[in-house]
Amino acid sequence: xxxxxxxxxxxxxxxxxxxxxxxxxxxxxxxxxxxxxxxxxxxxxxxxxxxxxxxxxxxxxxxxxxxxxxxxxxxxxxxxxxxxxxxxxxxxxxxxxxxxxxxxxxxxxxxxxxxxxxxxxxxxxxxxxxxxxxxxxxxxxxxxxxxxxxxxxxxxxxxxxxxxxxxxxxxxxxxxxxxxxxxxxxxxxxxxxxxxxxxxxxxxxxxxxxxxxxxxxxxxxxxxxxxxxxxxxxxxxxxxxxxxxxxxxxxxxxxxxxxxxxxxxxxxxxxxxxxxxxx
Length: 279
Known about the structure:
Layout: H1 3-33, H2 35-60, E1 65-66, E2 69-70, H3 71-84, H4 92-102, H5 105-109, H6 115-145, H7 154-179, H8 189-202, H9 214-222, H10 230-237, H11 245-270
Antiparallel strand pairs: 1-2
């Protein structure tokens, strides 16, 4: 009798593992179907990289560095930010809103898996697909066409990869929390655009935080958005040095725990307010 709870727990873990793998594989296959979109995305990103390269050359106006960061470092930051941008979830709010409106959300929340984990597994499949089909090929092409300042230290690369994964989860959790607003209101388009703008600006997607005015920079540095783009990229180009990396990764982890707890709390309140239209 005492072995029964343990057996049930192991069975649940196996079920969750199988479900996670199945959801990730389905998302990966779905991403690979749209090959034309992948090609168009590569061309678009390549054009943007060159536009931002010449923009930063013009802004530096012959100076060797600004705020202690060289032109080559800034160009590397901007180029890799554009390359990695498609990896991060950005359409979850729209997708969850659609599920709520057509009633399919009922099937999601009654599954034997936490709704947030369900979405995370789906987004992870898209992350892997985009990494393999878009980010890595684009990085190789950019390396051949543009001078990039990349680290030679394996420790820096390891810290960058860890930070990038936490940045992905941070982006997911922010999207997930914002998407839960759909349980209270059926129209969340405004929330989508507001979230998009705030995350892109304060996360350092297009403009690195070191060029912000001091007051805005200090605000951005204590918010979770910096962990999406700025922290991994600043580690990669050396703006965040080895001695600072543990603190930066610790900050990312702290925000992950806060956002994960907040997501579960809001979800527990949201399912009580569920109002499905249509379907």
